[in-house]
Write a structure and sequence with these properties.
Belongs to the UPF0235 family. With 73 residues, this protein is of the alpha+beta class. 19% of the residues lie in helices and 38% in strands.
């Protein structure tokens, strides 16, 4: 299933996944440097959905805060 995700890198709240009308908001502690925030996003979503991190894929928006993510449940 695909989700629209807004990422909040460098957040003190993280890792935290919040649902809203626009999609999911994911707070991660990692900063947006060298893909660290993307790795944190994948790990947070995998934990949230109870799947392995290999089943979470960023489809679009690798360099953006708003991403399209596919989760194989």
């Amino acid at each position: 299933m695909q989700y629209t995700v807004r990422v909040r890198p460098g957040s003190r709240k993280g890792p935290l996944v919040e649902a809203s009308a626009d999609g999911l908001t994911v707070h991660v502690r990692e900063r947006a440097v060298d893909g660290a925030a993307n790795e944190g996003l994948v790990k947070a979503l995998a934990a949230h959905f109870g799947v392995a991190p290999s089943r979470v894929e960023i489809v679009r928006g690798h360099a953006s805060r708003i991403k399209r993510v596919e989760v194989d449940e």
